[in-house]
């Protein structure tokens, strides 16, 4: 009897080990699609691919790659490699819009392949990818990758308007400042102010929604510690251009902006002589030519790729640091109007 029981147990184990092999490919692909869209990091997805040959094969199925979300594609700059580049290209080939934007930003700013980078961002923008539309608008406002004469303010405003229509907060803010200042569009202070308030309201709603999500005790404690540290460092926990007086944590930046920031600050990418990063901590965009970005008209020590970045950084950090200093004679510039996000406006240099 004992011998028979052991045999039955062995057969049961063998039967269980065959269950996965018996699953049809389309079901496994469907599960992998869910995983690629919801993974919290690239490691979560890559670990599945390394499990066995079948999962590796099905995990690289075009349908699975087309569903990969921003966090699945959030490659760290310090871990960038040919394999990372190849993975993003596979996702682009599969039709993943987020991958088009991510790889486009990396190629344009980090790898200095301006043409292919802009082309990939345009491919994402055609599919109504709001961050891609906004990034192309910033390129048009600054003439990035070209000369000062390549600026196209009207095109920048049009791209911002499209992204704002899709609910992109940074685009709403940028468009609001353009309307207030008459920058690339006929001045309309009332409409500009309305868009700024709408951007604030969307950002506030997003922050409150994130706070309402149920968290584990450890996560709640960690968030409280981070919030207290942020409030101490900046004097405010509120990233809004705040008409609401709400003290909420800073919004999480897009993974590709964190990539740009880490790429240049870690020394993996070298900025050319006289080139600087946007001073807003959540941006990471570098200048592509000297004096491309506009600087604070009060202190002259910080520079920004956009009015939106200036206005956010003013509330978050710069208002406690900004003090007038003597202008360097060799950096003769002319005023170009304030931004409306704080006391410090922006002026063009050179």
Could you characterize what this model shows?
This protein has helices at 2-17, 25-38, 42-49, 53-59, 62-66, 82-93, 97-110, 114-126, 130-142, 153-165, 169-181, 189-212, 217-234, 255-265, 307-316; strands at 294-296, 303-304, 333-335, 346-349. A four-stranded antiparallel beta sheet has the order 2-1-4-3. With 350 residues, it is mainly alpha-helical. Helices cover 55% and strands 3% of the residues.
Overall average pLDDT = 80
Number of strands: 4
Please give the radius of gyration in angstroms: 24 Å
User: What fraction strand?
Assistant: under 5%
| Major sheet characteristics | 4 strands, antiparallel
Q: Report, as a whole number of angstroms, the end-to-end distance.
A: 93 Å
What's the tally of helices? 15
- How would you name the oligomeric state of the polypeptide chains in this document? single chain
* Strand/helix succession: HHHHHHHHHHHHHHEEHEE
**Contiguous runs where pLDDT drops below 50 for at least 5 residues:** 1-7, 9-14, 223-243, 327-343
**Side-by-side strand order of the widest sheet:** 2-1-4-3
Class by alpha and beta content:
mainly alpha
The global form is globular
Q: Helix content range of the residues, please? A: 40-55%
Provide the fold topology:
Blueprint: H1 2-17, H2 25-38, H3 42-49, H4 53-59, H5 62-66, H6 82-93, H7 97-110, H8 114-126, H9 130-142, H10 153-165, H11 169-181, H12 189-212, H13 217-234, H14 255-265, E1 294-296, E2 303-304, H15 307-316, E3 333-335, E4 346-349
Antiparallel strand pairs: 1-2, 1-4, 3-4
């Amino acid at each position: 009897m004992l011998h028979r029981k052991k045999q039955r147990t062995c057969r049961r184990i063998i039967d269980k080990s065959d269950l996965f092999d018996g699953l049809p490919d389309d079901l496994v692909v469907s599960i992998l699609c869910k995983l690629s869209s919801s993974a919290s990091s690239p490691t979560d997805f890559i670990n599945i691919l390394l499990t066995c040959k079948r999962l590796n094969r099905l995990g690289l199925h075009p349908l699975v790659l087309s569903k990969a979300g921003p966090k699945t594609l959030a490659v760290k700059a310090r871990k960038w490699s040919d394999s990372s580049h190849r993975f993003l290209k596979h996702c682009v080939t599969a039709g993943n819009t987020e991958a088009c934007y991510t790889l486009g930003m990396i190629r344009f700013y980090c790898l200095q392949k301006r043409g292919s980078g802009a082309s990939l961002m345009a491919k994402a923008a055609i599919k109504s990818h709001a961050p891609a539309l906004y990034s192309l608008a910033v390129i048009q406002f600054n003439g990035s990758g070209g000369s000062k004469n390549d600026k196209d303010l009207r095109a920048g405003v049009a791209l911002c308007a499209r992204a704002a229509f899709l609910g992109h907060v940074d685009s709403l803010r940028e468009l609001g400042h353009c309307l207030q200042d008459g920058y690339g569009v006929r001045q309309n202070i009332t409409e500009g102010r309305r868009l700024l308030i709408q951007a604030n309201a969307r950002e506030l709603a997003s922050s409150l929604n994130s706070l309402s999500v149920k968290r584990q005790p450890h996560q709640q404690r960690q968030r409280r510690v981070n919030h207290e540290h942020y409030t101490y460092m900046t004097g405010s926990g509120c990233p809004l251009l705040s008409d609401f007086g709400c003290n909420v944590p800073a919004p999480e930046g897009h993974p590709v902006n964190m990539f740009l920031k880490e790429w240049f600050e870690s020394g993996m990418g070298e900025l050319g002589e006289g080139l600087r990063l946007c001073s807003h901590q959540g941006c990471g965009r570098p200048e592509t030519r000297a004096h491309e970005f506009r600087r604070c008209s009060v202190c002259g020590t910080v520079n920004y790729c956009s009015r939106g970045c200036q206005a956010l950084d003013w509330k978050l950090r710069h208002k406690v640091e900004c003090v007038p200093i003597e202008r360097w004679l060799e950096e003769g510039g002319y005023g170009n109007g304030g931004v409306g996000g704080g006391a410090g406006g922006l002026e063009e240099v050179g």
